[in-house]
Amino acid sequence: MNYVPLPIDMIELGQPLPVDVWDPAGKLLLRQGQPLRSEQHKEMLQAHQACLTESDARAWQKSFERMIHRLLQNGADVATLAHALLPAEILETDYVVGNQVLGGWLDLQEILRGLLYQGGAAINPLQRLAGIESRALELLERDPDESLFILFQALADPALGYCATHALLVGVVCQLTARKLALPSSVGQLLLRSALVMNIGMARIQDSLATQSTALNEPQRRLIREHPQLSLEILQRIGVLDPDQLDLVRWHHEHDDAGALPRNAVSRRLLRMADCCVAKMAPRKTRLALSALSAARSLVLNATPDTAQLGSAMAGVLGFYPPGSYVQLVNGEKAVVAARGMRANQPHVVSIVNPGGMPLSPYIYRDSANPHFAIRSPLNAEKIRIKISLEKVRKARLEHSA
User: Fold this and answer.
1) Scanning 232, 258, 379, 380, which has the fewest C-beta atoms within 10 Å of its C-beta?
2) pLDDT by residue (tens digit) across 77-119?
């Protein structure tokens, strides 16, 4: 029988356990249905290296993800999600085999958020991460523009949480930039894999900070400084062995030191640049999101001789107006960017609000290369008061291309 460590810190005191608890030698420590009675009881189980079976661990993980999804549907705020503990119930349908992850980007976001929240107590983490990575690559290959659209829309929605959306979007930007630079496919996959977990050391607090209305305090600043090392330690604890992935996670916030460069210098720079760029484009209670146009300019203008080519490639991948962002057209309409165009300043856009401020139905495709529908300026997501329908955007794109 194979066992995995019991995520003791994720268990509520007094709550009946839905699994049997064992020690590594297979001795039963706690029977299903019994609770953890006290902090001393937790310490006793930790001293005995309390475990659960792999099948129970996978099922409990799925139950946790389903609970988070239900909380979101019921309007739970980020603070509630950040403090969620493991549920007391596991359904028969939770007992699934394998690491295949299905669904779209928002499904991946839910699964990844649950895993990041659990950190070192995550159940069956490596198989889950492999499934997320594989599915993300499938979705990105199928439609890069729609992938960016969905993730940028999610980035502007604080109700979805921030940590997992940020991780997925950084990974996608890195992957697309690596392709544009004609780097080996293994480099792009390494960057995606590293982006998914680079902030596992501060995932819960990252979501809380995204909605905090006051300035950072010193303990929070210290955690931000120290989280790359914390993330490295968590990854080592859950069994990540790849030295290149561990290297990227450990140093993703640092600029190159003078002197000899590590073999992962380019990958480190790409991950750091994408991390910073996406963070600037995310809204905060204390500031508006930086427009993608400003972020792209920053990538180019703030580049050093070592990063100029990387910054230019990343700006080219995003464009001045990436899919999922909003723009004001010269005819007075407000539009959402549906796909990147041949030129960075001329994406494919779909008008969603008429010049009088009334929502459009159906949406109308506009060619931003046409002077009548040229882009006047980017728009902050907070200025859009309607919920965007991906299906309507798809329909407008298809009708134009037909």
Assistant:
1) 258
2) 777 877 888 999 988 667 755 556 778 999 899 889 989 998 8
155 and 213 part of one domain = yes
* Residue 87 within any structural domain of the chain: no
pLDDT one-digit tens code per residue, 227-244: 999 999 999 998 898 999
Decide if 104 is inside a domain. Answer: yes
Is there a domain that residue 66 lies in?
A: no
Residue 334's DSSP bridge partners are 328, 353
pLDDT at 224: 87
Q: Is residue 394 part of a domain?
A: yes
In the chain, pLDDT over 70 holds for what percent of residues? 95
Under 8 Å between Cβ of 110 and 168: no
Alpha carbon of 73 to those of 77, 83, 97, 112, 210: distances in Å? 10, 17, 27, 17, 20
The HSE-up count of residue 252 (CA atoms within 13 Å, CB side) is: 37
- In the block, tokens 């920053």 appear at 298
382 CB neighbour count, 10 Å cutoff? 11
- 37's tokens: 């009675």
DSSP tag of 254: P
3-state secondary structure string across 275-336: HHHHHHHCCECCECCCCHHHHHHHHHHCCCCCCHHHHHHHHHHHCCCCCCCEEEECCCCEEE
3-class SS shares of the chain: helix, strand, coil, % to 5: 55, 10, 35
d(Cα 208, Cα 156) in Å, to the nearest integer? 15
**Torsion of Cα atoms, 143 then 299 then 267 then 130, to 10°:** -30
The stretches of 181-301 forming alpha helices (DSSP H) are 185-197, 203-210, 218-237, 243-251, 265-281, 292-301
- 197, 110: one domain: yes
Structural domain total, the chain: 3
**CB proximity list for 258: less than 8 A, separation 6 or greater:** none
Strand, coil or helix: 136: helix
201, burial (CB in 10 Å: exposed 0-12, middle 13-18, buried 19+): buried
Do 137 and 272 share a domain, yes or no?
yes
Helix/strand/coil for 366: strand
Ramachandran quadrant class, 14 (left: phi over 0; alpha: psi -120 to 50; beta: rest): left
The identity of residue 238, as a single letter, is I
> Do 351 and 287 belong to one domain?
no
